[in-house]
Amino acid sequence: MQEYIIRVQRGVSAENSWQIVRRYSDFDLLNNSLQISTLSLPLPPKKLIGNMEREFIAERQKGLQAYLDVITTHHILSNCELVKKFLDPNSYSVNYTEIALQHVSMFFRSEPKWEVVEPLKDIGWRIRKKYFLMKIKNQPKERLMLSWADLGPDKYLSDKDLQYAVKLLSSCSHPYIYKITFATANESSALVIRPFSEKGTLKDLIYKVRSAPPPPCKLLDLENSLLGLPSFYRSYFSQFRKINTLEGVDVHCFGHLLYEMTYGRPPDTIPVDSFPPAPSVFVVSVLESILTCEAMKNGMPTVSRLLQMPLFSDVLLTNSEKPQFKIPTKLKEALKTSKECTEKRLTEEQKLIHQHRRLTRAQSHHGSEEEKKKRKILARKKSKRSAYESGEEHSAKYSNSNNSEGEMGCHPCSGTTLKENRIWTLKSNSLSNRKEGFPIEEYC
């Protein structure tokens, strides 16, 4: 049975890489599981006869590489738990729902009024953030939703400040923020309870999962930034050094949301070169200010600047509910410091990515066929010049010898042989008992 060695690298550091071994049947199983996405994925077809021939294996190797290139560069698929388990089984081998349930049970040992009804497996994209249907024991008809998550890499608040900030969330009252019933945190994770929305979310409406009439939009998961959880779009804005503030990040993420609301699907690439026809030219103007190449070079517009654009300038927000959220001065200072640390980490990451890109471009240019030809020509010229200079030197010595000795010497048979030093990169075309190897670019 033919096996393939896959080298996987996370991020720009070659040290953060590993190898896994997979068979074609493993690829086939993954592909069948990903069919729910309705995407056309280029998995090479099966072949029952002649599937151990050298030429066929070499061709299949190229096809499997192309398949992995597609799923690791597709933003949604690359964040899918199935893909992560396939490429990094050691890091994603546990049952995260079971782990979340254990932590939730520990939280509620001192809060006996809550009861977990069942896991909500089809909600959310974060692998380490899980959702459960909840109820209060003395109010069994009221349906609530609990979210539990590990703390993320941008958690810079002290444990004490974090626990205090999370508990404050339930006191937040705002017409456009979804109400939080209960929230608590410890040194490693946090949970938040909200009323369960029977109508689903805005994304459900965009992708026609539900047919309910559009409700007023309210912001969910306000706790994510406190917990240090990375943005879904981080792999996009980390590529652009002008998006280096949390306000810029929020505006960029809003651009993605507005694009999905407008066209019913995410953009194919970022930056966006051109926009399909839209119901309003004002919408396109906002998208152009956020998602185009020019916007990435100049930086994101501020929230104030967005509100002055025609799409928003004539909107009147009227609501009887007055926003209320009081934050103590000491916690405000801690949040400000946390914000600065988050922006610093983003800037450092962008710097590493920029350096890696420059190095990759230089290596690619140096290894191009055109550059190889130039180096060969220069090597030949240098060798010929050295040979010519060596011949002239030898002739001078021979002439001087004749003049001094007054005798006819034996003229040497001289010649120059140019031996090129070549670096051969060998790709195994594989015998039936040899493992194949091919590299995989970084994935998130």
What labels describe this entry?
13% strand, 444 residues, three-stranded mixed beta sheet, disordered C terminus, 16 helices, alpha+beta, five-stranded antiparallel beta sheet
Commentary on this structure:
By secondary structure, the protein is of the alpha+beta class. Helix content is 44%, strand content 13%. The strands form two sheets. A five-stranded antiparallel sheet has the order 3-4-5-7-6, sandwiched between helices. Helix 10 crosses helix 11 (281-291).
The percent of residues in helical segments reads 40-55%
DSSP E strands, number? 8
Major β-sheet strand ordering: 3-4-5-7-6
Biggest sheet statistics: 5 strands, antiparallel
The total of helices stands at 16
SSE-based structural type: alpha+beta
CA-based shape: globular
The Rg value, from CA coordinates, equals 31 Å
Order of helices and strands: EEHHHHHEEEHEEHHHHHHHHHHE
Average pLDDT, rounded to a whole number, is 83
In terms of quaternary structure, the protein is single chain
Roughly what fraction of the amino acids lie in strands? 5-15%
- The residue ranges in which pLDDT falls below 50 over 5 or more consecutive positions are 404-444
C-alpha termini separation: 30 Å
Please outline what is shown here.
This protein is α+β, with helices and mostly antiparallel strands and 444 residues long.
Topology readout:
Blueprint: E1 3-9, E2 17-23, H1 24-33, H2 54-73, H3 75-78, H4 81-87, H5 96-107, E3 114-119, E4 129-136, E5 139-150, H6 159-168, E6 182-185, E7 189-195, H7 202-206, H8 224-227, H9 234-237, H10 246-263, H11 281-291, H12 293-298, H13 303-307, H14 310-313, H15 329-366, H16 369-405, E8 436-440
Parallel strand pairs: 1-8
Antiparallel strand pairs: 1-2, 3-4, 4-5, 5-7, 6-7
